[in-house]
Amino acid sequence: MDRLRFLLITACGLGLSPFAPGTVGTLGGVVLAIGLQFAVPDHLQIAWWSAAAVLFLFGTLQSDYVKRTWPREDPGAFVLDEVVGYLVTIATYAALRGEAGGPPGGLAHMAAFFAFRFFDVAKIQPARKLEDLPGALGIMADDQMAGLYAGLSLWLVLPWLGW
Prior knowledge:
Elements: H1 2-9, H2 21-39, H3 44-60, H4 63-69, H5 80-97, H6 106-122, H7 127-130, H8 135-157
Helix pairs in contact: 2-5, 3-5, 5-6, 5-8, 6-8
């Protein structure tokens, strides 16, 4: 069970990157989102939101495991929050855009990646305050707020770019 936890928490090892593990870990969210886009194109919103909800719940329940595995409160290797944050970003954007817009293309996914990373690093309130929640909930929650900010910003900006 610990091996499965480790794989999920580190996004199959992406969080072990010696350079910018959060950014590299976000790529796990991109891969998952695009994989679901191809696997269940007719139920994409349900798939993205369901995956985000299940992984968020799983992540929030990992406080004890994180404490005994890593000495830091928010270890860099813990990137499941970035994976879920990216799913929230692309799902929010797609939900606001509506069905008529069709599924996001490659440029939209790229923009979602950069928007999410910006808002994850910027920690605009209440995201910064959410970090103060206890245990793994604090690790996970701020990234979901960043995902909402990023998805909303994409919905506002991308039409101006013709995407």
